[in-house]
Amino acid sequence: MPAITASAPGKAILFGEHAVVYHRPAIAVPVTQVKARASVFAQIQAPAGQVWLDAPDIHLSAVLDEVDPAQPLAILVREVQRELALERFPALKITIRSDIPLAAGLGSGAAVSVAAIRALSAFVGHPLPDETVSRIAYRVEQVHHGTPSGIDNTVITYAQPIWFLRGAPFELLKVAQPFTLVIADSGITSPTVAAVQDVRRHHELDPLKYDAIFDAIASVVNRARTCIEQGQIHDLGPLMDENHCLLKRLDVSCGALDHLVDTAHSAGALGAKLIGGGRGGNMIALVHAVDARLVAEALLRAGAVRTLITEVTPHQTQGGAC
Ligand code: PMV
Fold this sequence. Notes:
By secondary structure, the chain is of the alpha+beta class. About 40% of the residues lie in helices and about 25% in strands. The chain contains nine helices and twelve strands. The chain has helices at about 70-85, 110-125, 130-145, 150-160, 190-205, 205-230, 235-250, 255-265, 290-300, and strands spanning about 5-15, 25-40, 50-55, 60-65, 90-100, 160-165, 170, 180-185, 270-275, 280-285, 305-310, 315-320. The strands form two sheets. Strands 1, 2, 3, 4, 5, 6 and 7 form a seven-stranded mixed beta sheet that branches. The chain has a five-stranded antiparallel beta sheet with strand order 9-10-8-11-12. A hairpin with a 4-residue loop joins strand 3 and strand 4. The longest helix is centred in the last third of the chain and has 24 residues, at about 205-230. It is globular, with a radius of gyration of 20 Å. Residues about 315-320 have low confidence and may be disordered. The structure holds (3R)-3-hydroxy-3-methyl-5-(phosphonooxy)pentanoic acid. (3R)-3-hydroxy-3-methyl-5-(phosphonooxy)pentanoic acid binds next to helix 4 and helix 5.
C-alpha cells in the first residue's frame, strides 16, 4: 500500500475560551499557517499488526505495544481500529510532524489527532467522515484533558470559522467581511489542563462569582457573532478587550500575555486578547490589514518568540508567517 498523508490546521479561539467548558458559546477559527501532518507507510517486512509510532517532535519512536497505553497516539490508533472494527492493522509506520507550537493555545494536540485519524483510516481504505474524525479526536482529548469542551477538535476537523456551544450542534459562522489577525506566541508553554483545573476549583468554591464571569463572556461572544455576521469589524476590537479583561478575572492571563496585549494596542491594533488555556501560549490582535506587519514587529520587539498573520474569510483563513 502506498504512503498516505493527511494534515490539519491549528486554531484560535476568537472569543469564549474557558466559559465554553461551562456551556457558554464560543467562536473559533482555523489557522492554516501552521499544520500537523501524519503520514502512514506500509512496512512490508514487519509482522502483520505491527504499528510503529514515529513522532520526532516529542522524541517518540517505538512499536505501539511497547508504548504507554495512555499516550495520545496509542489511544488514537486503538480508537481508529475499534471504530473500523479491524482485527488488526496491516504492518505500518505512522509519522507525525507538526509546526503548531505545543501547549500554546493553537490546538496542536487536536490537530495531530485529526491528521492521524484521517491518514490511518484512509490507509486501510476506509476514510472516516468528518463527524467521526471529530468524535475520535474528542475522545483522545478527553483522556488527557478531562473535560474538553470539544471546540478544538470541531474547528480543526471542519477547518472553518465556527460558533460552538457544548452539547449542541456547532454552526459554521457566516463571515460578512474578511478581517486580519496577528497571533503572537509568548514563548511560555502552559498546559491547558492546569488552567482548566484551576478555573474549575475556583468555580466550585464560588459558583456565583464565576458563573457571572462566564455569563459576561457569553454576552461578549453573542455580540461578537453579530459583528462578524454583519461585517462590523471595528466593533470586534473592543469586544476582544472586554473578553481579555474577563479572562484576567478568571486568573488565566499572565504578565507576558498582558504585556503583548498592551503592546498590540500601542502599535495600532483594534483589540487584543489571550487565546486558549492562557497563562502563556499565544495572544491575538485584530488589526487593519495594512498595519499587520507593523503590529507583528512590535510584538516581536516586546518579547514574542513568533508571530503569524492570518486573515479570517468566509470559507478559510489565509496568510503567512512573519
Ligand atoms: O489551550 P487550547 O488550545 O487547548 O484551548 C483550550 C480552550 C479551553 O476553553 C480553555 C478548554 C476547552 O476545552 O475548551
